[in-house]
Amino acid sequence: MAEGHDISIENRLQQAYQQERRWYNIRGASRLVVWLIALLAVDFIIDWGLFAKTGLSGNIGVFLLLVNIGILGWVLWHEWLRYLRPYDPVTTSLDVEKQHPGLRSLLVSYMQLKDGPGSDQDNVSQSLIDAMRDQAIERSRPIDFKEIVDFGQLRRILVMAGGVLLVFGFLGALNPAHTATLLKRLTGSDVEYPTQTVVAGSTGNLTIRIGSDATISATASTDHVIPEKGTLYFREASEDKWKDLPMKRVEGSANEFSRQITAKNLTRDTLFYVRLGDDRSDQHTISIITAPRITDINLVLKYPDYMDKENGKSDQLNLEVQEGTTVKWTVSCDTPVSTWEVLVPTAWGAAEAGTGEKPEAPGDNTPKFRTLLADLDESGTTATFELPIETALKYSFRWVEKANGFSYEDVQHGVKVTSDGLPDVDLLQPREIGYATAGKIVKMEAKGTDDIGLDKAWLVYSLNGADENKVEIFNFNGDTNKTFDYTWKLSDSLKELKPNDRISFAIEVADRHPDRKIHLRRTAPRQLTVVTSETYLDWYRAEYGAQIEELKRSRNQELAAQKAVTQLQTEEGIEPTEPTEEDENE
Fold first, then answer.
1. Burial status of residue 194 (CB atoms within 10 A of its CB: 0-12, 13-18, 19 or more)
2. Which of 35, 415, 453, 546 has the fewest Cβ atoms within 10 angstroms?
3. Per-domain residue ranges for the chain?
C-alpha cells in the first residue's frame, strides 16, 4: 500500500511541475508578444517617421532588426527561459510546502528518504522512516499540488498580449502595404513606403562648371495626388544643414515642378532632393567643376647671345626680363585639360616655334587677341610653350577641361621688358679747347660704362670741318665699367698741318648689342687750333701767367680770411694760433 502511495505522490509532484512549467510558458510567451509588437511599433515610427521621410534609409532596417533581436533575446531569457528548470522532486516539494506550511517538511523528507536511510545514516531507524512517510501521505492527501501556481495572475498579461495583437492586426489590415514594407525593410530590402503623391521623375546627378546655375525639376505621377507646389532641399556635401527653396509648377504643365539654384549657392559639390506632397525623390549630387588650378611653374630664360649669360630661371608668371630674351614656360595644373591656349594681344609678336596659332574673332566689346596653342603632355596637366620677348606682354590662359569640356579663362599675367640702355662715355682728359703745334701729342683718358657690356672705343676726328675719320683705339672685351688711356700724335694721322687749321676730336664707344648703329655714344668734341711754335709759346706763357695770377688771388683771399679769424679770436679772448712754417710755405 505504501508503494502505491509513493507512486501517487510522485505523479502529483510531476503534474505540479508540468503545471508550473505551463504557467511560465504562458507568461513568457505573452510578455514576448507584447515586447515584439511594441518593438515593431517603435521600428515603424523610427523607420517611416524619421528615416524614410528624410531619405536617411541606408541599412537602417537591418540595424533595427538586429536591435530587435538583441532586445527580444534578452526578454526571452529574462522573462521565460531562465524559469524553465529541469524537473527535481525535492524542489517541487519545496514549492508545494511554501503554499502549505502545515506539511512541516514532511513532503521534502518523504522524497529524500523514499529509498530508505543512506549508507551514512546507520543511526536512522527504518520504522521511523516508514512512520514519517505514512504521515506525509496522510497529510498531503487533501492537498492539490497544482496550486503552486495561480493562472489568475496571468489574466492581465494575457489581456495585454491579446489586445496588442488585435490592435496590430487591425492596423496591419488597414495598412497592409505599410506593414509589408516595414517587414521588408527590416530584412534589408530597398523598398519605399506607399505615399499619396508619387515622384515619377526628377533631375539626377549633375555636373556643372563653377559660376553656372543649376535647374532642378521633378514630375508628379498623374495617377496619384498632385500637390500645388514642391520643395527643393539642398546643402553642400561638407555641411549638415539643409536649405530649402519652393518649387512652382512649370507653366503649361499640370504635374511638372522646377526651381533654379543660382551660381552663388553652388561653389562646392552640392547634394539635393525634391519633396512633392508626402513623397520625395532620391538624393542626388551636383558636382561643381572648378577652374584648373596652377600647381607648378617653371620658366627658363634664354638671354640674347651677345649678353653671354647662362640661362636664368623663374617660378613667377609675372616677371621682368631683358629685351630679346626668349622665355620657355612649363606650367602644370591640377585638372586634366584637352587644350591649353595662351591668349596674347593681336598686335603683339607672332606665333613662334612649338606653338600653333589661330585667330580670334573679337566682338564689339572684346579686346583683340590671338591664341597660341601650348604643347600638352599625355596626362593633359602640363603645358609647354616658348616666346621671344621683344616688347612688354600681357597674356592669360584658357583651358578646356578634359572630362566635361568646360572652358575656363585664367587671370591676366604680364612680362615687363627692360631695354638695353645706350653706353656712356666720358673724356676725362683733355677737358678744354686749346692751341697745338703740328707735332702735338694729345694724351687722353676716357671712361666707358654700360649695363650689359662694352665692346669697343674709337677716336673720331676731323680737320677743318671735313669728313670724320674713325680709328679703333680700345677693346673693352665685355667690361661694364672701364677707364683707359690713349696717346694721339697729331702728325701720325694728319699730315701737312698748317697754322690756323682746326682739329675736332671725340671718343665714341659701343656696347655689344647687335644693333650697332643705334647703340653708340660719343663724348662732346674737343677743339684744337694749329699755330706756329712762337704763337704756341706766347699762348702757353699767357696761360701760365693767368694761372699764377689765379693762385695769387687765392693766396690773398686765404690770408685775409686768416687775419679775420685771428681778430675774432682776440676779441673773444682766445689766444691766437701762430701759423706754422708749413702753413707759411703753402
1. middle
2. 546
3. 2-186, 199-289, 294-418, 424-531
